[in-house]
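step=encode ok
step=design start
structure_in=
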């Protein structure tokens, strides 16, 4: 077995249930965040962002298609350029950045009924970062 630094790792000191627990907990947290966001998108798009139901449905479909396609792109990047560990690190960083920006875009105050352009732009950029 080879560890991330390229050295041969010992079966007794690496991996095991400590690593498995960490991976399971991180994956559960990611799934809760993703499905929490995706289940509330139509409400947020038609409510605070003021989109029509048709426009909100079109935006959700475009986002769903993007999030279904991107694993293929990340797989290509991992196999061809970065390797799996660096790709996971980059994708995790982008995901956490997207979650933070999504929260920030929801906290921006809007002074009128219509949201400002910065709030909408930041929302969609962060939404596609977590795709």
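sequence_out=
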């Amino acid at each position: 077995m080879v560890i991330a630094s390229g050295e041969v790792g010992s079966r007794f000191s690496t991996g095991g249930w400590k690593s498995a627990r960490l991976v399971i907990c991180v994956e559960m947290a990611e799934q809760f965040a993703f499905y929490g966001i995706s289940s509330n998108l139509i409400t947020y798009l038609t409510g605070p962002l003021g989109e029509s139901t048709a426009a909100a449905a079109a935006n959700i479909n475009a986002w769903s298609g993007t999030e279904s396609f991107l694993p293929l792109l990340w797989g290509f990047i991992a196999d061809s350029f970065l390797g799996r560990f660096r790709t996971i690190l980059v994708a995790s960083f982008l995901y956490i950045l997207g979650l933070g920006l999504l929260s920030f875009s929801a906290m921006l105050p809007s002074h009128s009924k219509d949201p400002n352009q910065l709030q909408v732009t930041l929302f969609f950029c962060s939404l596609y970062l977590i795709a």
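step=design ok
step=annotate ok -> Residues 1-28 form one domain.
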